[in-house]
Amino acid sequence: MLKQIADAFEHHDYQTAARLIKQLLKQEPNNPWTQLYLGRLQEVRGKLEAAERIYRQLLKGTPVPKIMAQARQGLARIEATAKEQRRQALVQATADPESNQLGVLVLKPISQQDKPTAAQHLARILGIDPYTARLQLPTRGWRLYRTGPVGELKYYGSLLREASIKCLWAAIADIKTINIYQVKYFSDSSDQETTVVCHNSQGQLGSFSFNWSEVTQRVEGRLPLFEKVVDLDARRNLTRKTQTLDYAMVCDLHLPQRHSILRLCDRNYQFQQGIALTPKPVSSHNGQSQNSRIHQSTTRANWNNLANYLKLRLREKPVWSDFTTFAQTALDYPDLLEKLESHIDLFRLVETPWDPAFQLYSGLVFFD
């Protein structure tokens, strides 16, 4: 019967091969040749995953050289077929000119328990080895995984979602369409409606009124403030290095119905203007003197008052606060971040990718 099955495959008579394999499975289900031909049948039927499993099992548990050689040939055919299918799908996915816009693909965190299975799927979809795939899967927060044509990223993202790997993708051009307003202070506020004084993207000062119900979520982040310092190395030589002096606190309010984000920052929010916060905003003046440490502590106290006020108004709205974890992966893509305007007005001697990284993070949350 094995000779008949081999002849059927050689003449592409898969119906006869299927009938004979069915009989053989009843008679000798554990025969390695039976399993080999079953794998071949699954392969020609397009059930590549099932065929791959059978071939790999044969390689692990069958010492017969001829069977091992044919199993390896089967795996090679499957890999070539899958590669061609991916190529054709990518051509189709990037056929639309808009699909060639620059985009990003972000992996969402996965549990340690699900990581081994997810790594196998990620390896299969992207054509990488499982060990590398496992290292690339995040467990704590979002990971900026790939950049490239958004149509290509959408294709891979769809396959990842089908494999229960949570992810998102977005075009940089779409993130740039969000209206960003840098809030100077709340000029008026009630239980339903409030008004802020703010700068728009063109730097024009004006007012913006909205209902608290329009805010769907908050996004919080800390942006490091750097300074150049002179230090002594191990050989007592003077060296210059950059260190983190402090952090600027940023909070975005998302209003998707207005396609807008209201951005607050503790370094430029005018705490002495507008509505009274509870408790009363702390003054940073101490007689005629104002040293840096007092200024930092009063700024932080005032920011905490503002944060508590927002929590009270938006107590049922979700808060996204894992920016730092995401930023540590986004900083690996400086060319991408250079294409984004940060819309964060901080005094910096040297530009830093941290600012556009927050703009990217908040924009991705906006579209998620």
TrEMBL record:
Q: Which residues form a coiled coil?
A: 41-88
The record's annotation in Pfam families points to:
TPR_19
Which UniProt keywords are present, listed alphabetically?
Coiled coil
Q: Which domain of life is it from?
A: Bacteria
Q: What InterPro entries does the record tag this protein with?
A: TPR-like_helical_dom_sf (IPR011990)
Please identify the protein, giving its name as recorded: Tetratricopeptide repeat protein
Q: Which organism's genome codes for this protein?
A: Moorena producens (strain JHB)
> What are the leading ranks of the lineage?
Bacteria, Bacillati, Cyanobacteriota, Cyanophyceae, Coleofasciculales
